[in-house]
Write a structure and sequence with these properties.
It is a single chain. This protein has about 140 residues and is mostly helical. The protein contains six helices and no strands. The protein has one domain. The longest helix is centred in the N-terminal third of the chain and has 29 residues.
Length: about 140
């Protein structure tokens, strides 16, 4: 398989994951925090304001980091942890069967993030450029 195809797939996947956390993740919460806060409270979350702000920060910074490929392994690992926690708290299919699709979808996102955490950003990234400049 041509190297360009591999790079295109790895980069596209990383960028799309980043966009997922930046656009419908952080920006939606920034511009409509009330809806997210209400959903969190309805699921029994405590300290909703704190966790909402923390989630916005992680999703915004992690999304941007994934898009540009900066500190990708760390960003992907943190986003994977956040996704797992959100999945367990917000998509409790064992009590609400209609949450099954969201739960399984988030497992797919979690899996993609673990791949990025394990393999890194690839050659088309800031991580690669910075390591090449440092000779490593």
């Amino acid at each position: 398989m041509p190297k360009t195809f591999e790079l295109l797939c790895a980069t596209s996947g990383r960028v799309i994951l980043g966009l997922y956390f930046l656009l419908p993740g952080a920006l939606l919460k920034i511009f409509n925090p009330e809806a997210t806060a209400e959903a969190m409270a309805a699921k029994g979350m405590f300290a909703v304001s704190f966790f909402l702000i923390l989630t916005i920060i992680i999703q915004f910074a992690g999304g941007v980091a994934m898009i540009v490929g900066y500190q990708t392994r760390i960003a992907a690992f943190i986003l994977a942890g956040l996704t797992l926690v959100i999945n367990l708290v917000m998509h409790n299919f064992w009590e609400v069967p209609s949450e099954t699709q969201n739960f399984v979808k988030n497992l797919g996102i979690f899996a993609g993030l673990l791949v990025c955490a394990g393999l890194g950003a690839g050659q088309w990234s800031l991580d690669y450029r910075m390591s090449a400049k440092q000779g490593g």
